Amino acid sequence: MPISANLRSVWSDRVGSWTIDVPDLGVQWSAEASAILGLLQAPPQTLRAMVELVRPEWWDTIDDAIMNCIQGGAPFDVEVQMEARRPAPLWVRVTGEAQRNPDGLVCSVQGTLHDVSGKLAAVEQFRQLSEQFSTTLESLTDAFFTVDREWRFTYVNRKAEALFRHARAELLGRVMWEVFPSSVGSVIQGNYELALAAMQPVVFETFSSALQLWLEVAAYPDAEGLAVYFRDVSGHREVREALVESEERYRLLFESSADAIFEVVPDGTILHANPAACLLFGMTEQDLLLAGSARLVAADDQRVRALLAARDQHGKAKGELTVLRGDGSRLEVEATVGTYTTMEGKTLLNVVLRDITQRLRHQQEIMQLNAELNERVKARTAQLESANSELMSFAHALAHDLRAPIATILGFSTMLGDTLEKVGAERIRHYLQRIRVAARQMDDFIGALLAMASVAQSSMDKGEVDLSAAARGVLADLQEREPQRKVVAHVQDGMVVHGDANLLRVAVENLVGNAWKFSGGREVSEISLTAQDQADGEIVYCVKDNGAGFDMAYADKLFGNFQRLHSQDEFPGTGVGLANVRRIVGQHGGRVWGESQPAQGATFKFTLEPKPKAAPAPP
């Protein structure tokens, strides 16, 4: 039954009457009027008492209506709330009409009293129900609309407005097929007409060319037209299609994979096995399913538990296992396990097995070859070390053997020079002087070779080394050899480093010795050794002088063996010192370089490996 019919059933048809005599204003009530007011025992007898039956906010309304009727004969029809003796509010419709005597004067007012409480309550209930129904339709997540039997829109909710992309005001009262002409002759129209013709609901899914969306539609007919619920399922459909495509890809992968693939329940039951699994085990799929995973893994292989226990947070793990084939033979495989949950909430394992027999054989062969290669390398290294040792011994012995005849040449040339001094042959003395100079140079070169060999063969014995003390010692020795030199030297205090004391002293001797030698042409030589802290924490040590300097274009030759940037007459030397410095600094994990300009002095800078950090004290 419609809502309006239900509401009409609660309306009351009770009507009573009353009369006001004029001019004494006495009131007479019918029994029904008294019953409506609940005043059967003592109905009011005066107009004032009658008015006071009305709630105070309505006094002026009823009083004015009655007095206008008495005085001017104006009829009235008003609804007021009464002070009734009943739990629910009492609303009455009061009508009045003047009665005149033969002289045309108002002699009474006759009226009716109609109980309309039920009607007003029903109207309010209808309003509330309509509002609730409208709110429900507007809050639906589905789009909803209604059309009458002539296909005119009678209601459209907000969601339908959004999907239709038309405002409600544009749709209400218009024929659906005029608004969406592309739907004429479509599946949508066919299903709507079928629902009305059969008076049966229809549910379907279709693509709307008008909206360019996939829709899920439910249409419900009634005598007044059609109510339609619909929703956009384009995204769901894409997901379903992607799922179907994914399942098809997985099926193809499962069937065509060269690796054995099993779908397994956590208790070990095998649900599916691909053709590669059947080939690997030499068994049919049915045989594999009957065997179960427990019988396929070698009983003495305990790695399967470790493999399952090692699964990560995504349920994946990889390891090696020994499996048993159908003929009982053993096979080494690489197993990859993945855990996943089905749409029904079931947990399954995806197990992939790959035969690694060939790989293990290759690994064994490689290990054997590596072992043989290591032995060959050791033998060859021993041979090279022996050859190098013999070569170094030979070079050392040769250097010492060469020094003996050179010393003889120097000695006898000196004796010969002393003898010729008395004769006074200048040309002969000149020749002897050149012989002595050449012999001393050869002796210097041999000494340099021995120094290089010493540096190359030195074993590292690292500890704390005071570079400041080493530099001061070198400067003191040089000053003692050449006391006539004026030298201003500055050595920074506290330059303690980690390294080999003997090697670092050799490096300092060469750098400070170079500064001493190349600043010899100055009236006052200036030599310094300082340390500079860099932004990255590295320390750079600098040996600076105010000597002859050099052209930076030839800086790449500075640290080569027997490389010199000055003539022997200007600054005698072997060109080995800086090469030894580079070798020593490199052995200490550092680097060395020079900066200079001709006649502007030179600065040689070097770094060393930082001191090792001390181990933390035990708690």
TrEMBL record:
The keyword Transferase applies. Pfam families: HATPase_c, HisKA, PAS, PAS_4. It comes from the Bacteria. Residues 129-174, 246-289 form the PAS domain. It catalyses: ATP + protein L-histidine = ADP + protein N-phospho-L-histidine. Transmembrane segments: none annotated. This is histidine kinase. InterPro entries: BphY/WalK/GraS-like (IPR050351), HATPase_C_sf (IPR036890), HATPase_dom (IPR003594), His_kinase_dom (IPR005467), HisK_dim/P_dom (IPR003661), HisK_dim/P_sf (IPR036097), PAS (IPR000014), PAS-assoc_C (IPR000700). Residues 397-612 form the Histidine kinase domain. PROSITE patterns: HIS_KIN, PAC, PAS. Its EC number is 2.7.13.3. Keywords: Kinase, Membrane, Phosphoprotein, Transferase. Residues 76-128, 317-368 form the PAC domain.
